[in-house]
């Protein structure tokens, strides 16, 4: 009997976890392959909702997927760790040691064999070498960073409350992440208000959020009408939006701009630019572009090695570059889940992955939202806003849950979240 094929999936984000779940059903369950998911975290969250974790308006326990539990129920394996390098000659990956917070070694460096490897490690903010950003700014590229920001946010809110002072926060980057975080922070403070009033007898401190965008408008991936409307909405709720604001440097008190002006901020968030994690430079000499993305063919295989595939934000199709969005990652994961089994079992070539743009949605907390859809009418295409757009944004998240859990468990998760709104605070307080 032929040995099972070893499939390694590196990264448990939108694309990686979806692919592991689907391949587990088609190949893991039947014993045709052993599918192993590798991630340095123990749980998955939907990256487009990280701003909600950062502000505290989502509960970590309810809105994250435990990798061990998901693997157990969907016929794949999970190993915690970070792939430090790839040995293409031996077809092995080298995992970095797994450490506790104090540096104690939990697991030594390990090596794992593969027949096929799919890299889906996502992306992170790009500081473009701006002085002081790494030392003095926070980012929210993953759950650990989002939680770290939330802890600092709550601590500074308490300090401002006790000192009767304002809390200044500056966010660099006017894309969806920065725009949504600015709105969500105001939403969190509005929710906290009644708690402070009843617990301490006075209103919460004033929040002053400044959004810095180097380009001439926020949300550059959306039509200009959406950018203008979103800026107007942000300014209405109290956010200061500064376009054409190029950051020259950061320090422990704020940002210096290219024009010489200074933006003071107790909390500084960098949400500008996109690049692949630096570790791609150690992936067996695979060709990468200037932002670290792995160059792949239209069928998502590496241009250097047919056994290595890359998808989502960390990949770059040379002749047809795609935006670093969850929509692209999901479609690429579905494509590989459909065609990899035939390639692994019978050598049938994986066809090119054709991206179908279904539009984009941005939601500013409870305040407003916009959906820009391809075509010429509102639901067949065009722009919608308000409650329908905000609900569409929420349903994308629920659709992701159903893809991972199945229809009935996904709907039960939806129902459970709804029930908890009646018994738990709607913002993180501790």
TrEMBL record:
Taxonomic superkingdom: Bacteria
Signal sequence residues: none
Record's keyword terms, sorted: FAD, Flavoprotein, Oxidoreductase
GO molecular-function terms, A-Z: NAD(P)H dehydrogenase (quinone) activity
Required cofactor(s): FAD
Pfam families hit by this protein: Pyr_redox_2
Cytoplasm as UniProt keyword: no
Keyword Oxidoreductase part of the UniProt annotation: yes
GO biological process, one term: aerobic electron transport chain
SUPFAM superfamilies given in the database record: FAD/NAD(P)-binding domain (SSF51905)
InterPro entries, sorted: FAD/NAD-bd_sf, FAD/NAD-binding_dom, NADH-Q_oxidoreductase
Residues covered by the FAD/NAD(P)-binding domain: 6-333
PANTHER family recorded: 64 KDA MITOCHONDRIAL NADH DEHYDROGENASE (EUROFUNG), APOPTOSIS-INDUCING FACTOR 1
Family that this chain belongs to: Belongs to the NADH dehydrogenase family.
Name of the protein in question: NADH dehydrogenase
Taxonomic source organism: Gluconobacter kanchanaburiensis NBRC 103587
Gene transcribed to yield this protein: ndh
